[in-house]
Specification:
Blueprint (H helix, E strand, L loop, with lengths): L1 H12 L6 E5 L6 E6 L2 H4 L6 H13 L8 E6 L3 H10 L3 E6 L24 E4 L3 H14 L1
Bound molecules: zinc ion.
């Protein structure tokens, strides 16, 4: 999560909402890929930290299926990213702050653990939650 927080800070430097993500390899410690929110920087509404990290991890592995990998992200994923998480078949999602306004992994929705879907990752929430939330609060306060 510390690495994801570093990524989040990179997003803020470009004027993007500070959200950062990393993907860990099946060994649980090797960083396969990282990403931060680049919506403003890339003029891309889909350039969320999670999506970028998942794409880069798949490219690094040479396969779309991210079985046994872990996605670590500073903010609870939105519906788009929850869909991508489900599609990637990633095994574990770890996130920091909850997103009560748009979260799709336990707050507004729980897309990633929807019983109707055939793949449901393990979800661990609240890791360094206060630090993750503080970064977001500071960003919006400064705007
Ligand atoms: Zn998202």
């Amino acid at each position: 999560m510390r690495l994801a927080l570093d990524e989040a800070e990179r997003a803020a430097r470009n004027g993007d909402v500070p959200v950062g993500a990393i993907v860990l390899a099946p060994d649980g410690s090797t960083v396969l890929a990282s990403g931060h929110n680049e919506r403003e920087a890339a003029h891309d509404p889909t350039a969320h930290a999670e999506l970028l990290a998942l794409r880069r991890a798949a490219a690094a592995l040479g396969q779309w299926r991210l079985a046994d990998c872990t996605l670590v992200v500073t903010l609870e994923p939105c519906t788009m990213c929850a869909g991508a998480i489900q599609q990637s078949r990633i095994d574990r999602l770890v996130y920091g702050a909850r997103d009560e306004k748009a979260g799709a992994a336990g707050s507004l929705w729980d897309v990633v653990r929807d019983q109707r879907l055939n793949h449901r990752p393990e979800v661990v929430e609240g890791v360094l939650a206060e630090e993750c939330a503080r970064l977001l609060t500071a960003f919006f306060r400064d705007r």
